[in-house]
Recover the amino acids of this structure.
C-alpha cells in the first residue's frame, strides 16, 4: 500500500526535478515558438510567391505530422547526417517548430480578418508596407489571435511531456521512472496528473487576464 | 532502397493507425453526444460533473493519460487489456471531452427557439432533443468534428509509448535495425500527411452531402 | 474661392484595366494651387481608381502624374512613400486604426514616417484635431466615435502630414444623413483656407458652392469639365445634364447646414 514516506523521500524530489525541467522547456519554447509563428504568418500573407509557398509547406508539414516524429527526426535522425543535438535542445527545437506552425495559422487568420482598408490608409500616409504591418496590422492581428494562440500555448504545456520520449527527463518522465522502479503507476500518475491540471488551470487563468488587459474599446465587436 | 523494403511492414501500421483513430473518434462520438446534451439541458449537478470530466480529460497530457490507465488503473482493477484496446479507450475518452465542447457549441448556437417550438407542439424534452435539436446540431458540428480527425491522427503516434504497433512504432523498429533513421522517419511523416489529406477530403465530401440548403449563417 | 494660377498637380492620360476591363481610358487634367476640384460620375466609372492612381495606391497601366513638375509615377517604393506624404487621402470607409485612440491615429504617421519626436507630434496632432473640431475627443477610440467624428479624425490624420493636395474619396457616402453636414463643413473650411483638394462626391450642394471646377467622368473618360455654373446651367452634353439632374433630385440642391 502507499507509504507516506515514499511520497516525501522518493517521489516528490524526483517530481520537483522533473517539474523544473518542464518549466525550462516551456519557458524557452513558448516565446520562441510564438515569435516564429508571427514570422511564418507574415511571410505567408505578405511574402512574395517563393516565401509564401515555403511558409505554406512549413505549416503543412509541422501541423500534418505527429510531434513525436518531428522529435525523433531531430534526436535520432539528425546524428546520421552529422548533427548531434542534446535531448533538451531537440525537444525545444521540436516544440518551437511544431507550435510555430499552429500559431502561424491562427495569426494568418487574424491578419486576414483585419480590414484591408487600414493597410491602405497607412500606406496613403507614406508608411512603407513593413512599417504599416508592424505598427498597424500586427497589433490588431495579434490581439485577435490571442484565443487561438493561448489554446496552442496550453497544448504546448501538455505536450512538453513528449520530451521524455527523447530522453529529456521532465515531469512525466520523472514520474515514469519512479513508477516503474517501485511499481506504483496509479499513485504516481495521479499525482503527476494533478500537477498538470494545476499548471494548465493556472496558465488558462493567466492567459484570460492577459487577453482582457490587451483589449481596447470596440474590441468586442471585432471578434 | 531501404524504404522500398520497409514499406509493407509500415503499411500494416497504417491499418493499425486508422483503426485506432476511427475507433477512438467513434467512441468519442458515442460518449460525447449524450454528455453534451447533459451539459446544455441537464441539471446543475449534471452540468458540474460533466464539466469536471471535460476538465480532467482535456487538462492532462495524452502521455500521462496513457501511462495512468494502461500501466496503472487498468491493472489495478484487474483489467488485462492489450495496448491497442487501452489506447482506443484512452483516446476515445479524451476525444469525447473535446467533442462534447463541439456539440455543446452547436446546440447553443441553435438557440432556445427550436426547443420551445417543439415543446409547444407537445413533444417531451427528450423527444424534442432527439428529433429536432440533434439532427441540426450534428450537421452544424461536422466542420468542427472533422478537425478532430487530423488532431487524432497526429496524437495516435504517442501510443508508441505503450507499444501500440502503429506507423511510428514500426518505423522506429525498422530504423533501429537498419541504422537509416532519416529516410524511414521522413517516410512515416509522409504517410501521416497523406492519411491526413485523404481523410480531410473524404470528410469534406461528407459535409457537402449532408448540408442543409440555406442553413449557413 | 481664390486660386493662384500655380500649377500643382498634373494628371496625364491615365489608363487602368482590371481583369481585362478598362476602367480608366485616358484621363487628363490639371490642378492649380488652392483649387477645389470635384469629380462626379456614375458608380463604377473609376473615380476611386483615379484618385488611387494619383497617390500610387494603384499603379496606372499607362500615363503619368506630376506633382510640382516632379513625376510621381514610375518610382521605387521608397520614393513613392516620399510623395505620399505630400498627398493626403480621405477614404469612404474612414479606415481609422482601430487599436489607437484619436490623437494617436493622427500622430502615428508623424512619428513613424516623418520621424518627429513624440511631444512635437502630439502637439501637432492636437492642433489638427482642433482644426476639425474634435480636440475634446482626442482620447476616444474609433469604436466610441460617430461616423462623422471618425471621418473628421481621418481628415485630421491626413492634414497632420501637411500635404500639398488632399484627395477625398466619397467622404460622406458611408455616413448617416444627419452626420454629413459636419464633415462637409470641415471640407468647406479647408477650401476657404486655401487647401488644394480633389473631391469625389455625390453631394451637389457642396459641389456647387465650393468647387472651382467640376469634372464629369463617364465610363472611364473625362466627358466634360468646367466651373459649376457652366455645368449646371449650360452643359455641353445631354448626359451631363441628365446626370446632374438625377443627383440633384436624390441629394438635394440646398447648401448643407454646418
Amino acid at each position: 500500500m502507499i507509504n507516506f514516506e515514499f511520497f516525501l523521500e522518493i517521489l516528490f524530489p524526483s517530481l520537483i526535478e522533473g517539474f523544473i525541467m518542464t518549466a525550462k522547456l516551456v519557458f524557452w519554447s513558448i516565446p520562441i515558438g510564438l515569435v516564429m509563428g508571427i514570422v511564418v504568418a507574415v511571410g505567408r500573407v505578405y511574402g512574395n510567391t517563393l516565401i509564401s509557398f515555403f511558409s505554406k509547406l512549413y505549416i503543412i508539414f509541422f501541423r500534418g505530422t505527429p510531434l513525436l516524429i518531428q522529435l525523433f527526426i531531430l534526436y535520432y535522425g539528425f546524428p546520421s547526417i552529422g548533427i548531434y543535438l542534446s535531448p533538451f535542445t531537440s525537444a525545444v527545437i521540436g516544440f518551437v517548430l511544431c507550435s510555430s506552425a499552429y500559431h502561424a495559422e491562427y495569426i494568418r487568420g487574424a491578419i486576414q480578418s483585419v480590414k484591408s482598408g487600414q493597410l491602405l490608409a497607412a500606406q496613403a500616409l507614406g508608411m512603407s508596407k513593413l512599417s504599416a504591418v508592424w505598427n498597424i496590422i500586427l497589433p490588431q492581428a495579434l490581439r485577435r489571435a490571442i484565443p487561438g494562440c493561448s489554446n496552442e500555448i496550453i497544448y504546448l504545456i501538455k505536450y512538453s511531456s513528449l520530451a521524455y520520449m527523447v530522453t529529456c527527463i521532465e515531469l512525466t518522465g520523472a514520474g515514469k521512472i519512479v513508477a516503474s522502479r517501485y511499481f506504483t503507476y496509479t499513485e504516481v500518475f495521479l499525482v503527476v496528473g494533478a500537477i498538470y491540471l494545476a499548471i494548465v488551470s493556472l496558465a488558462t487563468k493567466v492567459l484570460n487576464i492577459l487577453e482582457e488587459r490587451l483589449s481596447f474599446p470596440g474590441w468586442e465587436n471585432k471578434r | 532502397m531501404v524504404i522500398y523494403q520497409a514499406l509493407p511492414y509500415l503499411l500494416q501500421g497504417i491499418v493499425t493507425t486508422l483503426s485506432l483513430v476511427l475507433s477512438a473518434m467513434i467512441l468519442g462520438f458515442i460518449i460525447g453526444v449524450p454528455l453534451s446534451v447533459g451539459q446544455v439541458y441537464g441539471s446543475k449537478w449534471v452540468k458540474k460533473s460533466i464539466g469536471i470530466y471535460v476538465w480532467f480529460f482535456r487538462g492532462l497530457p495524452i502521455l500521462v493519460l496513457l501511462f495512468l490507465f494502461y500501466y496503472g488503473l487498468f491493472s489495478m482493477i484487474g483489467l488485462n487489456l492489450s495496448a491497442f484496446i487501452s489506447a482506443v479507450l484512452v483516446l476515445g475518452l479524451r476525444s469525447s471531452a473535446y467533442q462534447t465542447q463541439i456539440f455543446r457549441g452547436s446546440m447553443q448556437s441553435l438557440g432556445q427557439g427550436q426547443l420551445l417550438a417543439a415543446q409547444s407542439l407537445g413533444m417531451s424534452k427528450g423527444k424534442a432533443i432527439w428529433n429536432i435539436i440533434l439532427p441540426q446540431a450534428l450537421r452544424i458540428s461536422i466542420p468542427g468534428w472533422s478537425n478532430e480527425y487530423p488532431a487524432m491522427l497526429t496524437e495516435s503516434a504517442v501510443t508508441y509509448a505503450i507499444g501500440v504497433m502503429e506507423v511510428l512504432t514500426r518505423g522506429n523498429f525498422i530504423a533501429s535495425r537498419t541504422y537509416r533513421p532519416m529516410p524511414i522517419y521522413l517516410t512515416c511523416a509522409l504517410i501521416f500527411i497523406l492519411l491526413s489529406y485523404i481523410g480531410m477530403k473524404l470528410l469534406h465530401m461528407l459535409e457537402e452531402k449532408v448540408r442543409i440548403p440555406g442553413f449557413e449563417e | 474661392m481664390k486660386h493662384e494660377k500655380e500649377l500643382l498637380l498634373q494628371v496625364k492620360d491615365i489608363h487602368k484595366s482590371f481583369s481585362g476591363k478598362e476602367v480608366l481610358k485616358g484621363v487628363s487634367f490639371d490642378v492649380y494651387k488652392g483649387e477645389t476640384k470635384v469629380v462626379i460620375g456614375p458608380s463604377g466609372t473609376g473615380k476611386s481608381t483615379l484618385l488611387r492612381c494619383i497617390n500610387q495606391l494603384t499603379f496606372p497601366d499607362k500615363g503619368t502624374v506630376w506633382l510640382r513638375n516632379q513625376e510621381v509615377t514610375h518610382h521605387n517604393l521608397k520614393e513613392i512613400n516620399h510623395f505620399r506624404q505630400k498627398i493626403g487621402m480621405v477614404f469612404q470607409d474612414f479606415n481609422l486604426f482601430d487599436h489607437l485612440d484619436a490623437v494617436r491615429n493622427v500622430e502615428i504617421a508623424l512619428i513613424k514616417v516623418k520621424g518627429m519626436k513624440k511631444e512635437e507630434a502630439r502637439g501637432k496632432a492636437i492642433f489638427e484635431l482642433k482644426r476639425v473640431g474634435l480636440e475634446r475627443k482626442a482620447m476616444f477610440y474609433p469604436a466610441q466615435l460617430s461616423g462623422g467624428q471618425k471621418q473628421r479624425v481621418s481628415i485630421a490624420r491626413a492634414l497632420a502630414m501637411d500635404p500639398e493636395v488632399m484627395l477625398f474619396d466619397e467622404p460622406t457616402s458611408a455616413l448617416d444623413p444627419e452626420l454629413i453636414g459636419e464633415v462637409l463643413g470641415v471640407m468647406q473650411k479647408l477650401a476657404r483656407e486655401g487647401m488644394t483638394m480633389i473631391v469625389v462626391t455625390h453631394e451637389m450642394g457642396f459641389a456647387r458652392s465650393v468647387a472651382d471646377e467640376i469634372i464629369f467622368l463617364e465610363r472611364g473618360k473625362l466627358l466634360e469639365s468646367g466651373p459649376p455654373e457652366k455645368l449646371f446651367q449650360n452643359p455641353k452634353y445631354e448626359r451631363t445634364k441628365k446626370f446632374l439632374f438625377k443627383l440633384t433630385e436624390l441629394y438635394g440642391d440646398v447648401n448643407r447646414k454646418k
Notes: The radius of gyration of chain B is 20 Å.
